[in-house]
Every structure is written in C-alpha cells, then in structure tokens.
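Example record for the data management plan.
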Amino acid sequence: MLAAAAIAVSLSGTASAADLRVRARPVYAPAVAAFYNWTGCYVGGNGGGFWATRRFSNDGFGFNNGIGFGDNHTASGGIAGVQAGCNYQMGPWVLGIQGDWDWGRVSEDDGRAVPFFTDHWQTKSLASVTGRGGYAWDRFLLYVKGGGAWLRTDFSFQTAGTAFSVSDTRSGWTVGVGGEYAFLG
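Corresponding structural encoding:
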C-alpha cells in the first residue's frame, strides 16, 4: 500500500504543458534605424574661386612674328552662383541631376603687346548640367558627377581711338567628385 501511495503522489505532482496557463507577451516590431533620405529636389547657393589662363595668338592674321597677341594672359577671382537639382535614393545609392550657374568678374587688361593697343577679357559666367551618382552613409553623401559645361567671356580691343568687342560662349565638359552633409532635415 505504501508503494501505491507513492505512485499516486508522484502521478499527481506532474503536469503537462497543456495544463499550464501562460501569459501572452506583447508583440513588438523590431527596431528600425532611421536613415536620412536623399530623395527630393533642392535649390542652393555656392561660392568659390576661378583661375584662368588664355593664350592669344595672331596666327589668324596670317603671320606669327611675336607682335600683337602671342602671350598668355592669366587672371583669378571669385565667383558666386546658384544650383538646383533632384536626387533619387535606392537603398544607399543616390542618382541625380544638377544644374548650376555662376557669375564672376575674372578679368585682365594687357597693354604690353603693341604700343597704343590694349586688350581686355572678362569671364562673365560659367554654367553646367551634370548627372551624378553617389553612395550615402546616413547624412553624408559621397558622389561623382559629369556633364556639359559652358563659359561666357567678353573680349574688347582698343587701339588709336578705335575699339571693338566680341562675346564668346564656349562649350566643353566637366567631371568631379564631391561630398555633402545634410545638417537639417
């Protein structure tokens, strides 16, 4: 009888998992890190420096004897302008397009070439339209860009009371690399 009581005590002391009450835990979504989104359009301003070297030649006049144009003209100055563009972000990759227009007063006068003759040139504006692609680390964007560029320069010449001027817009290309940091947003 003692054995039967021990078996009954041991059987009554066990329970199966189906018999236990379990409190339901609240379900939480996993934490998602918030990253800066570079998608969108923007407008901004810029400023910087401009260095130029121009080589004038009198080869177009049919002679090259060192008189007249034939030396290098260098100048430097500041420029300031505006830019606008749009970006689209796919994961950490950012693609975009940007246009900019800068104004400047970079100029030089030269009266050394021929007595009583002066020439003056002034770069008035610089513009570009570029495509760009980059990689974003949250608020920092590292990018490369490339596209078309245009430079407008005015030339004026004066000798013995006679003056004439001409404007010239030249086209070319531009490539670059840059970085941006989003302070606001």
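Summary line stored alongside the record: Residues 47-181 form one domain.
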